[in-house]
Amino acid sequence: MTDHKRKYVSLVALLAMALALFSCETEMKKQIAVYNGSLREFENVDMTYSEKDAVKVKMQAKKIIELQNGDREFPDGLYMEFFDVVTGEKTSTLKANNAYYFKEEDQWRGRGKVEVKNIQKHQELTTEELFWKPATKKIFTDKFVTIREIDRVIYGTGLETDQNLTNYTITKPEGEFDVEEN
User: Fold this and answer.
1) How far apart are the first and last CA of the chain?
2) Beta strand residue intervals within 17-152, DSSP E
3) pLDDT value for 29
4) How far apart are CA 78 and CA 172, in angstroms?
5) Which of 118, 128, 140, 177 is the most exposed place for a label (fewest CB within 10 A)?
6) Which residues share a beta bridge with 19?
């Protein structure tokens, strides 16, 4: 082989290797995935949220997993107490077997056995899934709900209410009801 041909074959081989390396590098870049898993984990958490020296919410959780995107998971349940900022009295509680906080929507979801109690009105709401939006102080679900009051029990599917259960609407009520005529 002539010197000229050797140089030409070497140049072609070098170009082929460069292309192979470039394509491998491109393939490697495609395989890199963004990590969306847990950022931090906390155990036996007892938190208090207050404004202007008044306690608004207390929260207890056995475990909190904070994710990269700011979401928080409560795999072992969650218990919250809500307080009247003027009187300091506990107004309601929320308990769930499992909970999740969606940071982008500023929304909580409770699952499993979910209970909300209005202490002052002696009401209790139970359901298997419930959503709470702190900004609007609204609670809602499309699941079956039971509301227990001092003198009655109300069943139905779907609910919208304020976080203290003072004004609630059941989308599809079930059972027997007393109707007052004017």
Assistant:
1) 111
2) 38-51, 54-67, 72-74, 78-83, 90-96, 98-102, 107-118, 123-133, 138-148
3) 57
4) 28
5) 177
6) none
